[in-house]
Specification:
The protein is of the alpha/beta class and 334 residues long. The chain has twelve helices and twelve strands. The strands form three sheets. The chain has a six-stranded parallel sheet. Helix 9 (252-261) links the parallel strand 8 and strand 9. Helix 2 (47-61) crosses helix 4 and helix 4 (104-114) runs antiparallel to helix 5. Mean pLDDT is 88; it is low at 1-35.
Length: 334
């Protein structure tokens, strides 16, 4: 097969990563934000995603990472050297609870990098719920390909489905409130587009994709510039700026400055790690003028109390960094 992955492995990957940011024209995820149970917009793999899939195959199947090489699986080469029959496998749930599926387009893309001859059958789509013990998909190809690709397929499916499943738990917890669940940029390097897609599959919303699609004034900016008033002086007026402007405030006094000087500039006020009584007070003051967002150590135990403050959004880092993996396994079909 032809491969476009650059070597040496890591320097090439990050060069391509940076190039992809410049050349990729894939739009950010766009979907109906009026419902907590959003219809999933189909995933369109971008240039970074494609390089990530290539990296996943390279690290398993390429013995000399700094040299062009064909894929090598020494065990499969020995076992299927003279007989490589067509076989079928199934991916099933061994979890004890429902799983929100995410990653089916990734699976197909990985298989396309290995072989032109495979059949993937499933009745599910990303965002659907898979019950314990149910079969997610069946896959038919030559035996060697099936065992070579098993771990790579499962790694992506288990990780992305875990993010979607955790997100769904948050979304359902606040379903009857006005709170919207957001992700953050606390993502695995190289995985951001896929992990944010997984949040979307779970019914969450995507925060900014990077440093290029929103102004976000954090505490570090405020400290380095000598205070929130100095920051506000440098922000463009809203009618001159097509991007949202999000400003973090840490105290009631900082919020009052934003209320006095930021109404023609600021889109949303972010309250980070605020005690609930102070959060409620700040939300009540800010809400007539700005969108409001809470962040900082929000979990499934605390999210309902956060929602009850009336805040519009909660950005939750653990959606992508603490979801773990769901229990999906591949088994042979006789």
């Amino acid at each position: 097969m032809s491969k476009n992955f650059l070597s040496p492995l890591y320097s090439g990957f990050f060069k391509t990563f940076l190039d992809a940011i410049q050349i990729d024209e894939t739009p950010l995820l766009v979907y109906d934000q009026s419902s907590k149970e959003n219809t999933v917009t189909p995933l369109k793999l971008n240039a970074i995603d494609q390089q990530l899939l290539a990296l996943a195959l390279e690290e398993d199947l390429t013995p000399h990472l700094n040299e062009p090489s064909h894929y090598v699986d020494v065990t499969s080469n020995a076992l299927f050297q003279h007989d490589n029959p067509q076989q079928s496998v199934a991916i099933i749930s061994k979890a004890n609870s429902d799983i929100v599926i995410c990653g089916l387009p990734v699976i197909e893309a990985i298989l396309n990098k290995l072989t032109p001859t495979f059949t993937l059958n499933t009745v599910y789509h990303d965002g659907d719920v898979l019950s314990p013990g149910q079969t997610l998909l069946t896959l038919h190809s030559d035996a060697k390909t099936l065992v070579m690709v098993e771990r790579t397929l499962l790694n992506f499916l288990r990780h992305l489905s875990a993010i979607a499943t955790l997100t769904k738990q948050f979304v359902r917890t606040v379903k009857y409130t006005r709170l919207n669940i957001l992700d953050t940029r606390k993502t695995t390097p190289g995985f951001r587009h896929l992990e944010k897609y997984a949040v979307h599959c779970g019914g969450g919303m995507n925060h900014r994709m990077g440093l290029y699609d929103a102004f976000m004034i954090k505490d570090t900016h405020i400290d380095l510039l000598g205070g929130i008033q100095s920051v506000l002086e440098k922000i463009p007026l809203r009618h001159h700026n097509p991007l949202p402007v999000i400003v973090e405030v840490r105290t009631l006094e900082e919020l009052k400055v934003v209320l006095e000087q930021g109404q023609q500039k600021v889109t949303r006020v972010l309250f980070d790690n605020m005690p609930l009584p102070l959060l409620k007070q700040c939300v009540d003051l800010a809400k007539p003028f700005f969108e409001t967002e809470a962040s900082g150590n929000i979990n499934l135990m605390s999210i309902k109390a956060v929602a009850e403050t009336g805040v519009n959004f909660a950005s939750i880092g653990m959606l992508t960094y603490a979801a773990g993996q769901v229990d999906l396994s591949m088994i042979g079909i006789k």
